[in-house]
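#structure-requests
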Amino acid sequence: MEDFHVQFTAVTAQRTGGGTALMYASSARQLLEASDKNAKQLVLKEFVDKLRDRIPSADEFDAGINEIEFSDRNTRSRQLVKYLLRRLDRRLRPGPEPNYDNFSIEHLAPQNPAASSKVSNRLIGKLGNLLFVPEDINAALRNADPMAKLAKLKDSNFPIDENLKVATEWNDKAVRARTILISKMFREWILKIQPSERKVNFSSLHL
């Protein structure tokens, strides 16, 4: 349900007219009234199928991701950006999960560069230009050139995606390409709802 609402509500801002709330209420009632585990399994299968039918298309999700931005001048999406970048970092990071309370949003191309920037102001806040890093790394990077920042991240073995690993320059084209890559990664291996035939572990449910 979390992954569904990331796609449906947070990223693409779909409107339901109350239909989704009614679907939840109806499925919850059916689950309570189900007589045995097989009946409960059927209710949950039908519920997941209904969620799947409402998942936004790839084009809708890509368009929604492209609209998300965060900067000092536009902070409205701060929490959503932190959430998305945290999930991205967790997917790329080997080993145990770090304390994300000590992480902050870093702009690869700085918001206030010391020298001229190859990234235009309209793209500074896009997801393709953002990273989620520990505060000590954020402080070390400061307003450095994007390629200098990437070099420091690589030297510290910080987990980065393929676009950043192979980047030879950082400009508008690179930001757009990484924004598309992030959207694709979320669609393919983070937000994909599991097949409806997957069995539910009822021992973990309080029914």
